[in-house]
Amino acid sequence: MIIGSDPPRRRSARLQMRNDAKDVTNNNESTHNKRKRAVSPPLHIRQQRTTPQTNKKSKLHTATAAAASKKQTKDTAAATSLPRTKEKYLLSKKSSLKIIGVDEAGRGPLAGPVVAAAIHIPPTSPSIPGILDSKQVKEESREELYKQITTQKDIEWAVAVVDAPKIDEINILQATMLGMKMAVETLILRDVKWNVVNEASVKEKGSYV
Questions:
Q1: % of residues, the chain, pLDDT over 90
Q2: Rounded to whole angstroms, what are the CA distances from 107 to 7, 91, 104, 177, 190?
């Protein structure tokens, strides 16, 4: 017997345990690598999988942008002038109707007059492009539209001004209604009781058309 050394049987048992531990470790590493390969495919396969998706997203974005641009172009073309759908419908029911459009300006300010305008554009009148909501029209375009509308012979229009003292007397709502009435009656009756002038001016006193 050699002192300080393990008996043969004990050494044999320890060696067997070490070998078993190495086998278990190797088996675990092998299983881990298999799982890793199963979860994460090779690089060329990952590229094949991701590239079509990227191209698909890019094509979808391009198609969406093109559709939006086409819609904007269509909307811009359609917005060259306000449609007269309601007028056409009413005239289809009774062709002898004289349809007059009315609007006002000046209800918001704390001082100054309120102004109302009335206009009759015959259905046979040449179309004037660019007639939209006044808030959507630039100032230089408004001036140009004003010239075209007021110089076209078959178009009838009138503008009524109700001054500040009258507004204080009857309130802004009633003054607005009065201005609209003055403008419309001027187009329909011709011979009206209102003060009629050729041109609006700040020097003009009282309410007038």
A1: 25
A2: 114, 32, 8, 11, 27
